[in-house]
Amino acid sequence: MTNRRNFLGGAGAITGALAAASVSKVAMAALPEPVTQSTPNTMPPLMPSGGRPYNPVVTLNGWTLPWRMNNGVKEFHLVAEPVVREMAPGFKANLWGYNGQSPGPTIEVVEGDRVRIFVTNKLPEHTSVHWHGQRLPNGMDGVSGLTQPPIRPGKTFVYEFVARRPGTFMYHPHADEMTQMAMGMMGFWVTHPKAEHPLIEKVDRDFVFLLNAYDVEPGSATPKIMTMLDFNLWSWNSRIFPGIDSLNVRLNDKVRIRIGNLTMTNHPMHLHGHEFLVTGTDGGPTPKTSRQYEVTTDIAVGQMRQIEFLADEEGDWAFHCHKSHHTMNAMGHDVPTLIGLDHKDVARQITNLVPDYMVMGERGMADMGEMEMPIPDNTARMMTGEGPFGSVEMGGMFSVVKVRRNQKPGDYSNPGWFKHPKGTVAYELDGQAPEASRRREAGAAAMPAQNMPAKNIEVQIRKPGSGHTGH
Ligand SMILES: [Cu+2]
């Protein structure tokens, strides 16, 4: 890890405050030095350097924030600041985040830990941090104006609370949220159980990532912050496929994936080749009686979910949001459906006027993935995931769970594409295909159709001033 430093003692104790408070000059001298990360690569798990032991998580295309122990308190230092995030190779976005990246680093603690988080604001406007899902003193909840004054630019605030319950959490600003979350300010938080927990299994791999979304116009690099629903970049941890790393596991590993949704719509997350259990929700581990095997689970806005499965099928298994528009990049929505249209004549006429005019979409949109179109600089290509058999025709919220027999325990590196055993890949038929059965009837109805005579419906209009009140 770049710039990762060890925190070594020497800091004066800061007494536990009852509410998030501004730090005095004297205390500033004792601030933990902020650790920043310059690459968007998936960093290896950060083994705990002290305190109660736990099995650390791996943040997809992200990292875990180191902490220092100060008189029994785990101290972290978050710096809210503008960052340049490489969202996919060749495509960088001007975002806001924490400690050099968007999303910010994952914070990992153990149930019962007393945690002190210094938040320094290097943004051009005020901010705050809300610890989404945590039990904490009200004054530590991070709602600007409601539970604390905003953290002005240049100022540092201190949050301090005990991580009371184990589970999956997030953090994000609760000040000018629309702007700050549209710009990428968010992070993941995991509280590990302090002892064996009847509802929390031990797993071999524990992955985390946030669902987020941006609206960046082709050729530009800064998200539009007023967008409500029509985002064009659907991302995991501010990365879009093929920029999202694969989740690499060993055959028969027990795998946990924790996902938080900080977009403005729901995402049905779908795993191929395996069934999983939803073992945790916003409130922590789920009761065993509530668990059922699924291959898709919907994650609503503001929710956290953790899924678990036994990776007992070798291969490269797609893992993605099942909304098909969310596995596309740089989508424009004002495109008419042209499938089946023959518009050669129109195209010929337009080409006389505009020599570079290109017809898109008359055979579907798959051609877009293969076409080497000139696009503006710094633009996420529409679909470019390239697999061993050609274009995957996927982008956005898509990755691959790679299950391998000889992936070493603790090895998270990419093993490359799966080598399918002979005779186990769908193949092209040699020769004539047998006649396919086709249903030729127009369709049937459970009940005979009836022609309803049009009825005259009298519309009652209440005129203003007719004595009706109460609106
Ligand atoms: Cu989605």
- Silhouette: globular
Largest sheet: 7 strands, mixed
Oligomer: single chain
Percent helix among the residues? under 10%
Number of strands: 24
How many alpha or pi helices? 4
Q: Kindly estimate the percentage of residues that lie in beta strands according to DSSP.
A: 25-35%
Separation of the first and last Cα atoms: 62 Å
Fold and architecture overview:
- The chain is mainly β and 471 residues long.
- The chain is 5% helix and 28% strand.
- It has four helices and 24 strands.
- The chain has helices at residues 25-28, 177-182, 344-353, 367-370, and strands at 21-22, 58-59, 68-70, 73-88, 91-98, 107-110, 114-121, 130-132, 156-162, 167-172, 187-192, 205-214, 233-236, 247-250, 253-261, 267-271, 277-281, 284-285, 296-299, 304-311, 315-321, 386-387, 390-391, 398-404.
- Strands 2, 12, 13, 15, 17, 18 and 20 form a seven-stranded mixed sheet that branches. Strands 1, 3, 4, 5, 7 and 9 form a six-stranded mixed sheet that branches. The chain has a five-stranded mixed sheet with strand order 14-24-21-16-19, with no helix packed on it.
- The longest helix is centred in the C-terminal third of the chain and has 10 residues, at 344-353.
- It is globular and about 80 Å long.
- The N and C termini lie far apart (62 Å).
- Mean pLDDT is 85; it is low at 1-17 and 465-471.
- Bound molecules: copper (II) ion.
- Copper (II) ion is lined by residues 234, 267, 321, 323, 326, 397.
